[in-house]
Amino acid sequence: MEEINVVKKNNNSQLQIAGAIIITGVIIAGAILLKNTSPGTINGESTNIVLAKVDADDRTLGSPKAKVTLISYGDFQCPFCGAITGLAPEDADTIKYLKRIDPNWSPLLPGIMDYIKNGDVQFVYRDFTFLGPESIKSAEAARCAGDQAKFWEYHDYLYAHQNGENRGNFSNSYLKSFAKNLSLNTADFNKCLDENKYAQAVADSTNKGKSAGVTGTPKGFILKNGKIVSTIDGAESWTTVKPKIDSALK
Fold it and tell me: Per-residue pLDDT tens for 50-67?
C-alpha cells in the first residue's frame, strides 16, 4: 500500500487536525488483541493493529465475498465524517477547509460506491462515539432504524442534518422526528430508543475501536483477505483513497 499522503508534506499537520479529531487522554500504546482478529502489513511493514472480523452485527454495504473490505469508524456528530459522505453542503466550513488544503479534495463515499456495486469492495460502518451524549444516542437511533432495514437511510439523514456538537440537534425528540420523516414505524423505533436497546452495542463498538488504536474519526482500515493492508487517516480525499483501493484489488 502506498504511504498515506493526503496533501503535500508541509500540510500534514493541518490535515491531521482536520481529518481526525483527537481524543483527550493517553493514546493506547499497542493494540489489544481481540478474539477472532488478524494483524496485517502496512507499507510492507508488519503491524500489531488488529480489528474484530466483520460479522452479522456490522452494518455493511456490498458483498461479503468482496476481495477488499473497508472498515470505517465514524461519529454522527463529527463534521469530517459528514464531509466524506458527500452529504455536507459545498459551503460548509469543513468542506471549505478541506478544499483550501487540497483544491482537488472529494468525498470518499460517493467515489467508492461503484466498487461496492460491482462487488469489489465491502464497506463496513462502525461506531466510535467520542464526542458526547448525542453521538451515543444518534448511533443507537441509527441501529434502531436498522431494525426496520433503514440503517443507511438514517445514517445519511443524520450526516445531512449535522448542526454542531451536543446542542440538542440529535436529542431524543429530534431523533424520533427523523424516524417519522423517514416513514419508519415510530412506535417500534421510539420503544427501541427509549429502552436503550443498543446502548451496549454502541459502547462495545467504541471500545473495540480504541483497542484497535482508533483515536478519532473518521478512521478507515483497508483489508484484503482479512489482513490490514492500508489505513485512511482522517478526511482523506477520494483521490488519495482510490489508489489504495486499486492497489489492494491487484
Answer: 788 999 999 999 999 999
